[in-house]
Amino acid sequence: MAIRYALLGLLTKGPHSGYDLHSIFKTQHIYFWNSTHSQVYQELNKMRDEELVTYETIVQEGSPNKKLYTITHKGEKRLIEWMMEEAIKPAKIKDEFLLRVSAFQAISVEEAITLLERILAREKAILAGTSQWQLEYYGEHTHPSYLEIGSYLTSEFGKRYAKMYVEWCEWALELLESYRV
């Protein structure tokens, strides 16, 4: 159900198509939430039925028509109620790689090092990509407009999370090196 509130929050910035909303998930929300294309559209349809959003059909030549979704007053009210009144659940980490790490004893030290090196490279690329995105989106400004504050704060979280992951991988690699025969 939280995808609903993520979508409503994005729509407070202005009208978006379902495609745009899914793209934002893939670029801006990647560190703390994920969704599939179909989840976005299913939730938009439910929210339309509940009058939390409306849409305008944009006719396009040479492309399928698109729906441009807008949050309603009822949708804004529900978003604010959720933000301010519902209990905030503890954060959950759901990281498939950490499941693999928890079973490192089943593979050789060399194999464990290989896996960690792959994840280290992935996280360095994510850190670089997020830093680049933030620079392109916000420029040198570290004090964006309030309309952009949510995206700025969450992208900064993403950078710091990736940096922590890089540091953890480097530490774990150093420890694993001590097990080499």
From TrEMBL:
> Highest taxon of the source?
Bacteria
* Pfam families named among the record's database cross-references: PadR, Vir_act_alpha_C
InterPro entries linked: Tscrpt_reg_PadR_C, Tscrpt_reg_PadR_N, WH-like_DNA-bd_sf, WH_DNA-bd_sf
Task: Tell me which residues make up the Transcription regulator PadR C-terminal domain.
Answer: 93-177
- Domain Transcription regulator PadR N-terminal, which positions? 7-79
- What's the protein here called? Negative transcription regulator PadR
Native source species: Pontibacillus salipaludis
This protein's encoding gene: padR
